[in-house]
Specification:
homodimer; six-stranded antiparallel barrel; two-stranded antiparallel ribbon; 9% helix; 32% strand
Chain lengths: 152, 152
Amino acid sequence: MKLKFDPIGIIHSPFKRKEDINTLGFSSATGFDEVEGEIEIFKKYEKGLKDIEGFSHLIIIFLFHKMGDYYLHVKPYLDKELRGVFSTRHPKRPNKIGFTIVKLLERNKNILKVKGIDMLNGSPVLDIKPYTHRDKKENIKIGWLEGLLNKY
Amino acid sequence: MKLKFDPIGIIHSPFKRKEDINTLGFSSATGFDEVEGEIEIFKKYEKGLKDIEGFSHLIIIFLFHKMGDYYLHVKPYLDKELRGVFSTRHPKRPNKIGFTIVKLLERNKNILKVKGIDMLNGSPVLDIKPYTHRDKKENIKIGWLEGLLNKY
């Protein structure tokens, strides 16, 4: 079963190369929070942005477009063990789908100025959704990542 | 630009028809929290689940496979206004991508038993990611949804 998708927009980010992102790293919980960028929604979809200004945070679903093959076991940044790729946010994953929650600073027509960018410049955007209270979970456990965070 | 995706699994849910889900509704923040179901990851990808047991919550990216055309303006459940589709979680959206955070109860090989199911039975799964502290945002504003929540 093959599913086909069409990007609705594109990410404008200060990260031009994969190496620029690795240095900030996944385990750095707040490393990307101050990084600003723009999400350009193609004109064809601009009407779909109505009312979005009222939300402070947006869920961005995008493509890790510079990734080649995926691996089922990957070594996360700073970690020493191989982990199942679905237990990580590693980009070398089946379907190469990325997920980031950004802070919406400003909307100017089809351009969303946002903070919290950790995507590569030129990443295709697949969907945007409003972040709501339902997405805030309590009493969370974070498995292997717990030990890593304690370490650094 | 057409992107192609291959599902990594399938949702087993008590919701057999679209109508079963509408009655719980989007604005009901906790309506789905107790709904149990299973996420079956295809055997080919089972290795990618290593270490996932350590996480309490998982991000599920899936397909609204029973949806036809999308609309750029949609009327959310219980709302009286038309909203931009990207300001809503409405399923009739470009690329038909769904996003739900579930609670992981148990893993049995390639089957994840979870709580918080709001997907239709048979929905194709595109990706699974661990939910971490970075996904909990503070001081959030929820625009048009605020008024609706106050009302009901």
